[in-house]
Design goal:
Blueprint lengths: L2 H24 L9 H10 L11 H7 L3 E12 L31 E13 L5 E5 H4 L4 E6 L8 E11 L4 E6 L21 E6 L7 E12 L13 E4 L11 E3 L5 E8 L7 E5 H14 L5 E2 L2 E5 L2 H6 L9 E6 L4 H5 L6 E5 L2 E2 L3 H11 L4 E8 L2 E8 L1 E2 L17 H5 L1 E5 L2 H7 L8 E6 L4 H5 L6 E5 L2 E2 L3 H9 L6 E8 L8 E8 L2
Antiparallel strand pairs: 1-2, 1-4, 2-3, 3-6, 4-5, 5-6, 7-8, 7-10, 8-9, 9-12, 10-11, 11-12, 13-20, 14-15, 15-16, 16-17, 16-18, 18-19, 21-22, 22-23, 23-24, 23-25, 25-26
């Protein structure tokens, strides 16, 4: 082989050898760890679990025929309109035959028709419809539009009020028909969870058959609609858009079952709406249908949920829950049964009581005139009492000046107190029969301030001990160590002349 041929062969051999070495060095025999880029690339190739967003069209098709538009007409009386003299049009078109205007004493109130709208849903084939009480309250005429769709204007039918309940803002109305009407299925509002789908259907702002979708945003909400509803507010919160006109319409779950009755919105908020749980309607429906009203049991106590500091203060076993009795109303069933302020109710009959809602709902549902066994913790000991429920009517109501002299207690829990004298009673509006010490100053950033103690509060007991002088309170406080809980029983009056209330304020000793 000549010299050029040898050189060409050598170069070719080197190239082949280099290629083979590169293959060997870069081959993956499982001994080298993949780079992050390789892992990411592999992850992209791996199958990804798909998320399917459901369509709500089938639910709309099934439920909308049973959702009705409600128009209620109320006749209201208003003062007659006056123009401070002659009719303003008379200047241009005088009427020689027109009588002189009447004096304000002669003028009669004018009647005016006030029309409002809302939503409802049919729950029985023979025409029973659930809605909100505020949709039909005071109405002299009610009409519902049934079967309305985009292609069908539906038919308008008169409806009558069967029953209504102001406390839960629920009403039952009925249309008379011989045909079977479409209905919705009632679900179980106790099973909903925050994050579940929520679907609202109604007639907001006269846009009929509007469907909006969101989720359950919260449960057990109280928003203070009125004095009548205060004890029974247990709303579902949702971000499914609810607007004026949605009132009384259904809030549905993903199965198209009613879980709530759309009731209220939070003004100035964005998509914060509230619905009455459907289980409330299911409980009172028989009474609304048969009696037109709801009769409820009543104990006559002011209560609140027990918090961790309360449990420590009143000797409740660790991990236990219940409701704290702040004030039994004199002469009412709880008072007659021997229930005292400071008792913690943990059970009524076989029903475990973990929050105020448990007790209120149970006693309300058993009705008046029923004996109930109430289990309480008192001074760390369990005790069972028997009460006979009364008829619930209006809710029982469940105060406040300058302080010349600061007591040493101010340094410990942040309040100044004085004995009740004729002068301090007059200054703070304290009834002469009330015994205790009056709070004359509260440091805003202090244990007492954080617990809600207010100027004018009269402390009558501290940790179960009667308090008559500042020294009595000081002795109780000094007997406690840091981290202990101090329950103060206070009475608060109203400067406006309203009723007084007694309740506990629990303070953690610093």
């Amino acid at each position: 082989m000549n010299q050029p041929a040898k050189r060409a062969f050598s170069v070719a051999a080197i190239v082949v050898a280099s290629f083979a070495a590169g293959v060997i060095l870069t081959a993956d025999f499982g001994f080298t760890r993949p780079s992050i880029a390789q892992e990411a690339s592999a992850d992209r190739r791996a199958p990804v679990a798909s998320v399917t967003v459901p369509s709500f069209a089938d639910i709309a098709d099934r439920v909308m025929p049973a959702v009705v538009s409600i128009t209620s007409t109320e006749v209201v009386k208003e003062p007659a309109r006056r123009f401070h003299g002659n009719d303003p049009f008379e200047f241009f078109f005088p009427d020689p035959g027109r009588q002189a205007p009447q004096s304000p004493q002669q003028q009669q109130p004018e009647e005016r028709r006030q029309v409002s709208g809302g939503t409802g849903f049919i729950i029985t084939e023979d025409g029973y419809i659930l809605t909100n009480n505020h949709v039909i309250e005071g109405a002299t005429k009610i009409e519902v539009v049934i079967g309305q769709t985009l292609d069908d204007p539906g038919r308008t039918m008169p409806a009558t009020i069967v029953g209504r309940d102001e406390a839960t803002d629920i009403a039952l109305i009925k249309v008379e028909t011989k045909e079977k009407l479409p209905t919705v299925k009632l679900g179980d509002s106790d099973r909903i969870r925050v994050g579940d789908w929520a679907i609202a259907i109604g007639n907001p702002l006269q846009f009929n058959n509007t469907l909006t979708v969101g989720v359950i945003s919260g449960r057990g909400r109280s928003i203070g609609i009125s004095q009548a509803t205060t004890s029974f507010e247990d709303f579902i919160q949702t971000d499914a858009a609810i607007n004026y006109g949605n009132s009384g319409g259904p809030l549905l779950n993903i199965n198209g079952e009613v879980i709530g009755i759309n009731t209220a919105i939070r003004a100035y908020a964005q998509n914060i709406g509230f619905a009455t749980p459907v289980n409330v309607a299911k409980r009172i429906y028989p009474q609304l249908r048969d009696k037109g009203a709801v009769s409820r049991g009543y104990l006559g106590i002011n209560i609140r949920d027990v918090e961790a500091l309360d449990a420590k203060a009143f000797g409740l076993p660790e991990g236990s829950r219940g409701v704290l009795v702040e004030q039994p109303v004199a002469g009412k069933p709880a008072d007659k049964a021997g229930i005292l302020a400071g008792d913690i109710i943990v059970q009524v009959d076989d029903k475990v009581v973990k929050r105020t809602r448990d007790l209120i709902d149970y006693v309300s549902d058993v009705g008046p005139g029923v004996k109930v066994k109430i289990t309480v913790y008192r001074d760390g000991q369990k005790k069972t009492l028997t009460a006979t429920t009364a008829e619930r009517t209006d809710d029982v109501a469940g105060a406040d000046e300058p302080a010349p002299k600061a007591e040493p207690t101010r340094n410990k829990i942040g309040i100044s107190v004085q004995e009740l004298t004729d002068r301090t009673r007059q200054m703070y509006g304290v009834d002469e029969t009330l015994e205790g010490i009056v709070v004359t100053d509260v440091k805003e950033v202090s244990p007492a301030g954080e617990a809600g103690v207010a100027v004018g509060d009269v402390i009558t007991k501290a940790r179960g001990k009667k308090v008559r002088t500042p020294e009595d309170l000081r002795e109780v406080i000094e007997s406690l160590k840091s981290g202990d809980a101090l329950p103060l029983y206070v009475t608060r009056g109203s400067r406006a002349g309203g009723p007084t209330r007694s309740f506990f304020r629990v303070i953690e000793i610093p």
